[in-house]
Structures are given as structure tokens and as C-alpha cells.
Amino acid sequence: MKRMDFCITHSLTAEKLMNQLMYRNVKHIPPAVALEHFTFQKRDFDQEMTKFVVGYIGRLSHEKGVDILIRALQFTKENIFACIVGNGPEKENLVKTAHHLGVDNKIEWHNAVHYEKIPETLKKFDILVVPSRETSIWKEQFGRIIIEAMASGIPVVGSLSGEIPLIIGRVGFTFKENDERELANILNKIT
Question: N or C: which end of the chain has fewer CB within 10 A?
Fold first, then answer.
């Protein structure tokens, strides 16, 4: 850092940390979204839905909290299903957890998709869930998928981890980290 003249961060948390470490020349610039790829799609939630798809796109690792989404499914209405897109070290455990809880019939699994397929994948969801959790060495720094979903007109539900509540602001829904009951209650109220 002694050789750095300037630092750009993508989150307010990182800006604060770098200001403490560098004491100078730190600027927060949030990532942008290519709106020509992530086009807004108006959604009609007034009609009763026979199938409500809760989506997740990202790494399947402990800190990303996908197990929280899976556990929440056991407390949701019959018409709520999950589409989980991603790969990672926790995938096998997540599939086992879903089977153990008896919700594996409510989950559609897909491997990670190339970035250019994200807009098309988002359009299959009625809502996006970002259930991240802080660990002793990690906290969500930005969550780019959140702004991509919002740009596409997909509502977002996110945990209170790191930058998630700051990005979602007042236009989405938040729940306490690791609280599958609160997540399930939000999903049930929306449908």
C-alpha cells in the first residue's frame, strides 16, 4: 500500500477500511450495469401465481448462505420453488440438505452459467434471494447480481450481510442473517 497513490473500492465498507489503512486518496465507485443487457421487465404480482420461482445465482459456498434458502423452503407455501444456479464446494452438502428436509422436489439445480447468460437466467425468476452470511474472514462486499436483478425488474430479498442492505435500500426486502423463518415469511407474504 505504500506504493499506491490512489485506491478505488466497490463498496462503502471497503472504502472505510482502506481509508483506515491508507489515510488518503480512497474513492468509492460502485460497479455499473450494462442496461442494454439487463433490460427492465415489468412484473405483475397482483394475480395469483401457480408457481413462484425464487432464484439464486452465485457460488455455492458456506458464506453465500444457500442452505438458508433451502431451509426456508420447508416453511413456504406449496407454490414457492427455488432455482439455484451455481457451482462450488458446498453443492453436494446442499443437495443432501434439501433431500434430508424433504424439499428437493421444490428445487431446480443448474450449473454456473456464463456471464452473458445471466440476463436470460434472471428472467426465469420471480424474485432473487441473496442469503449471504458473514464469517470471521468474509462479508459480502457488493453483490453485483443485486443491481443486475434490479435493472431487470426482478425484486430482491437479501440478508443483512455486509453491503447487501445498502444496495437493496428501500426497494427490496431484507432479513437477519441465518434466519430461514424470516426469509420464508417474506416469501410467503409476497406470493
Answer: N
Q: What is the pLDDT of residue 48?
A: 59
CA 135 to CA 12: how far, in whole Å? Answer: 19
Compute the CA torsion angle 160, 162, 163, 169 (nearest 10 deg).
Answer: 20
Q: Which residue has the cell 428436509?
A: 101
CA distance 159 to 8: 25
DSSP letters along 6-61, please? -EEESSHHHHHHHHHHH-S-EEE-PPP--TTTS-------SSPPS-EEEEEES--S
Separation CA 161–CA 47 (nearest Å): 32
Q: Cα 68–74–79 angle (5° rounding)?
A: 110
Which three three-digit cell numbers place residue 10?
Answer: 466497490
Band (4; pLDDT cuts 50, 70, 90): confident
As given in the structure block, the three cell numbers for residue 52 are 413462484
